[in-house]
């Protein structure tokens, strides 16, 4: 069956038209994603728009990327818009390019197309990075059907070659580096963004005092540590709590984010080199 491109080209034309109007439209939205999957809308702190995530893992990765200082912005369900290149890569790989029952080619997508500041560059140049999320289970033939795993790996290889041709770094993210607790802690701390501008001028003295106090009273519940630090600096507990959340969200406090934060338990600090 010969591939047809009518639907794919219409989809891409619509997507490009939105970009020309400075509006980003994800290729797949939560209401049009695969049935039987968990989907989420998430209001981005940096983008100020709703992101469309098609799985719990994508949502967790989206929250983490949103919080990282190097992230300028990211675009989810980003189409591999050069469909001719995609088909050519599929031919080179000796695999069938995905299409529907009528032979209409699908437009493939990347989970996250990120704009990131290169923190190792003295000029803080912005770079583009493509990131795709997969669960480790989806790559394990002992857990998933071998055919499913093979198709997943083929899609990843096609995606990798596509971005290699575009000279854009491609990163595979898994639940190995996208933990549930980390995403939970960041989502919990994100609430401070509504009012952090009112107290942000106190962040440096608070962070220094907090690390000192949390290290000294390492068996003391977080709530009490915040109270002690706030009292020392002449702040209200609410302001101290907000500054702690800001330190978590902005990754300025050395908190072990892979352990769930509980204000009634000691705060887990990570070692700083």
How would you briefly describe this protein structure?
This protein has 273 residues and is of the alpha+beta class. It has eight helices and six strands; from the N terminus they run αββαβαββαβαααα.
List keywords for this structure.
about 270 residues; alpha+beta; Trna Endonuclease, Chain: A, domain 1; 4-stranded mixed sheet; two-stranded antiparallel sheet; 8 helices; 6 strands; about 15% strand
The number of helical elements comes to: 8
CATH topology of the largest domain: Trna Endonuclease, Chain: A, domain 1
* CATH hierarchy class name of the largest domain: Alpha Beta
Can you tell me the residue ranges where pLDDT is under 50 for at least 5 consecutive residues?
none
Main sheet?
4 strands, mixed
Identify the CATH architecture of the largest domain: 3-Layer(aba) Sandwich
Give the total of beta strands.
Answer: 6
Instruction: Decide which structural class fits the backbone.
Output: alpha+beta
What proportion of the residues form beta strands (DSSP E)? 5-15%
